[in-house]
Amino acid sequence: MTMNSVISAQNLDLTFQTNDGPIHALKDVNLEINQGDFVSFIGPSGCGKTTFLRVMADLEQPTGGTVTVNGVSPAEARKARAYGYVFQAAGLYPWRTIGGNIRLPLEIMGISKAEQTKRVSRVLELVDLAGFERKFPWQLSGGMQQRASIARALSFDADILLMDEPFGALDEIVRDHLNEQLLKLWARTEKTIAFVTHSIPEAVYLSTKIVVMSPRPGRITDVIESPLPKERPLDIRDTPEFLEIAHRVREGLRAGHLDE
Amino acid sequence: MKSVLPVLTVVAAILAFWLAAVVPMNMHLVADQAQRDGLEVSPETPVARQEVSGVGLAFRNPHLIPLTYDFVRPRLPAPQQVAGEMYDTIIDKKITSKRSLVYHGWVTLAPTLLGFAIGTGLGILLAVGIVYSRVMDRSVMPWAIVSQTIPILALAPMVIVVLGSMGIQGLFPKSLIAAYLSFFPVVVGMVKGLRAPDAMQLDLLRTYNASKAQGFWSLRLPASVPYLFASLKIGIAASLIGTIVAELPTGARAGFGARMLVGDQYGQPLVSWAALFAAALTAAALVGLFGLIERITLKRMGMQAA
Lengths: 260, 306
Known about the structure:
By secondary structure, chain A is α/β, with parallel strands linked by helices. Chain A contains eight helices and nine strands.
């Protein structure tokens, strides 16, 4: 474990007991995520990428091995509110305004009213939704709702952001735009981000580290350290460096499939 | 406004059916009376007339048809007779009069509202218990379902008589029956509503390390509001029926149920019918009121009414 390791997994195993027999969701997973990393998890359905993220968040319990988040167990990290989690769907409460939704974690954590107001306007600014505080979720587009849900995860200032295919349900144009914004947000807030996706360009564009996974049993087949600079305009995706990494990811995914 | 035309169409169809039914239903009584009044009737003896159907009698005595719509003690009163009786007993009579339907309406409405409040409160409490406790989920729900299979007509007199022998009379026994009928839809609706949040929404609260109480107040309760209103609209109508049933078999002197029984026992069908329609209108008004509160509440909560 290095000095600035934030999330660390050693020999992680997770088997779900189902009616159709046991499912080996994660097998012998080892990974270090350092502070300030943007790590993408990519792989086909059933490769355990979402399960791995949920283990970090203490939403699933591993059946073997160890995971630490900020040096403690995921359960302790969750109780210390060490991470913000963004789900596949925005999942905003329809009876709360955008501001009210972002205030939800702050209310639960017992943060003062004045501080709540300050933080809500700050994170709305961060996700480019200033002026939408009093709108209800149904008045916003899908992309705006997802941005609001990111603002909600940012509002309590956790150092770690766990994102489970947050842009999976959005069209490509909106997705490009949000990817660009997410990178800017990451640069400004210096958070550690773990990001699940099944889009190769998205993974390569966003990440400092790409974790390629394959199914049955879910395992890591390749970990790619990206040589791309931190500053990334959208057209970096046409450079040879970018295409080379994308090629390596694709090869890794293919290799995982050939194993079967 | 779009719903007005279909509703009026149905009302018109019911009225037409009713108007058509008045003639054959009352024809024999009218023919007997007409004969006593010296009018020409065919066939001539009551025994012979019994062999003929109401429709047949109307064909043979067309001159008697208008009389069926204005008979004093009809088997089936005509719509305008019921309307006249209602106008008389709701608007003309003083509220303090024992014949005023407003007075009888309040006698029925008060226990309805009290019983509804008890039933709703109990229903919500049971639903919370069922959602949060596995033991209650397994033990209470089957009994709640069984409770609704007991015919209320059989149960109501027993409850009223037992409570009466203990010296408890008036408002409370009737409220108990009303509560008995109204708690069930609230339990079913609220259990569904409190369980409406999906796994993702519950996981989200878990990532905040929210307590069970926080999860209840911030997620489960607001999510259940649309379900609650659906249940309240069923519950309030059930409460009114419960109260009326509780008034029927026990010699109650006031209330819609008592009026229905009095009309029946003393050969005054108009009194029964007027009470019946007044009860129906009261139920419609109560359901409409809760529909209105529902729309206002959901709008203020930012959710569209279902």
